[in-house]
């Protein structure tokens, strides 16, 4: 069989998260491993109403083939929202609807990368972005992520290599929960202005800020080769698989659109109508405010429980939004070896390894706080604390 497989698929690791989710889904296991939004945040009643309304109003259009770039009305909604909230001047031609941001990552890899091309990523970064880009067998240049964001000197050094694009998650980063500071963003922008590279800002969590002030995008609206990714996965529902890609670069958009035609012709049009109708007929800002309040409470429960149950040698980030926080164990400890012991204690997390392109047996782990109630979070952290004290 090996002979029949492409080099691309052989170079792509399986998703560690998906493989451990099975173990972690045993009843009784408290799982901080997944990346699932809290299902209580899905606006199910309103979506049911929208479902009926779109079928009645638009008839066969919601079931027919459609255009690759996506439903114009939904793209207009996104253009207006991004103008109002982020000050970006967009038309619908700057926006392609994608089947989740994950598809955007796949398309970008296909459009920009040949084998051996350079890609700059944060260290650590979103594991499914590593997977998506790996299909094209690039060379990864990981740059350290500090409390302030991507390390500017590291970025400058990495840009000395032949690099096609830089991939960043500046707000409530997956996996660390860190947010790039204002100073860091302007420094990174200055550096990127001097290089012919594409900047990808992946922003699935930006709307979920439960503390602090919103900060400007780094490259969107400023750099000639900028791509901004967004999604309704964390604010409406992930199962609909509706995300979007924004760029002001016509050539990039055109090539990405061709790749999307090849990939899936267009994103599920029923889902696009559904999301658009929902947005148009409901108070989306109020819905988001509720999710933020929910996640703020859950994040605080997790941090307070860690303050209480974790030994002082274990450090962790304090996210201002999003869905994750990042734990650093003492030097030399391996979160991967801890994982089976944690399962014995009926608690699960994601060890740091799959979030790096160049590290094994990392002393870090990712914890998700959005998919469990406060009591469960406190109990899970207590179990993890017991294990960490035994270290
Ligand atoms: C950083 C990042 N990018 C992209 C995605 C994919 O999101 P979507 O559901 O829109 O495909 C996720 C999902 O967890 C993510 O954390």
Largest sheet: 8 strands, mixed
Order of helices and strands: HHEHHEHEHEEHEHEEEHHHEEHEEEH
Number of contiguous helices: 13
Termini gap: 42 Å
Give a count of the beta strands, DSSP E runs of length 2 or more. 14
Task: Give the name of the CATH architecture of the largest domain.
Answer: 3-Layer(aba) Sandwich
Q: Radius of gyration, Cα only, in angstroms?
A: 21 Å
Taking pLDDT < 50 over at least 5 consecutive residues as the criterion, the unreliable ranges are none
CATH homologous superfamily of the largest domain - what is it? Answer: Type I PLP-dependent aspartate aminotransferase-like (Major domain)
Structural features:
single chain; 391 residues; alpha/beta; Aspartate Aminotransferase, domain 1; Aspartate Aminotransferase, domain 2; 2 domains; eight-stranded mixed β-sheet; 13 helices; 14 strands; binds pyridoxal-5'-phosphate
């Amino acid at each position: 069989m090996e002979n029949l497989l492409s080099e691309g698929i052989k170079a792509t690791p399986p998703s560690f998260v998906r493989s451990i989710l099975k173990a972690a889904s045993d009843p009784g296991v408290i799982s901080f491993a997944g990346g699932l939004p809290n299902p209580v945040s899905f606006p199910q009643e309103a979506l049911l109403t929208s479902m009926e309304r779109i079928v009645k109003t638009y008839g066969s259009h919601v079931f027919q083939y459609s255009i690759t770039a996506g439903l114009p009305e939904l793209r207009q909604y996104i253009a207006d929202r991004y103008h109002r909230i982020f000050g970006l001047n967009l038309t619908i031609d700057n926006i392609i609807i994608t089947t989740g941001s994950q598809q955007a990552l796949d398309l970008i890899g296909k459009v920009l990368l040949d084998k051996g091309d350079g890609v700059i990523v944060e260290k650590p970064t979103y594991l499914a972005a590593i997977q998506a880009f790996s299909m094209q067998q690039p060379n990864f240049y990981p740059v350290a992520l500090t409390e302030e964001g991507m390390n500017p000197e590291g970025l400058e050094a990495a840009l000395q290599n032949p690099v096609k694009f830089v991939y960043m998650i500046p707000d409530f980063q997956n996996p660390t929960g860190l947010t790039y500071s204002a100073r860091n963003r302007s420094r990174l922008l200055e550096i990127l202005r001097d290089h012919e590279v594409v900047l990808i800002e992946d922003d699935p969590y930006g709307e979920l800020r439960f503390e602090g002030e919103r900060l400007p995008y780094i490259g969107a609206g400023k750099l000639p080769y900028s791509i901004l990714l967004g999604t309704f996965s964390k604010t409406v529902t992930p199962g609909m698989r509706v995300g979007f890609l924004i760029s002001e670069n016509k050539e990039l958009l055109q090539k990405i659109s061709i790749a999307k035609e090849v990939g899936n012709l267009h994103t599920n049009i029923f889902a696009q109508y559904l999301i658009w109708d929902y947005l148009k007929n409901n108070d989306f800002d109020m819905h988001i405010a509720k999710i933020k309040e929910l996640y703020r409470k859950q994040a605080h429960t997790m941090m307070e429980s860690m303050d209480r149950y974790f030994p002082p040698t274990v450090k962790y980030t304090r996210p201002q939004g999003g869905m994750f926080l990042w734990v650093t164990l003492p030097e030399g400890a391996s979160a991967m070896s801890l994982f089976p012991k944690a399962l014995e204690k009926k608690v699960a997390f994601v060890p740091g390894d799959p979030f790096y392109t160049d590290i094994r047996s990392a002393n870090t782990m990712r914890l998700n706080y959005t998919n469990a109630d406060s009591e469960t979070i406190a109990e899970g952290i207590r179990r993890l604390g017991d294990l960490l004290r035994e270290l």
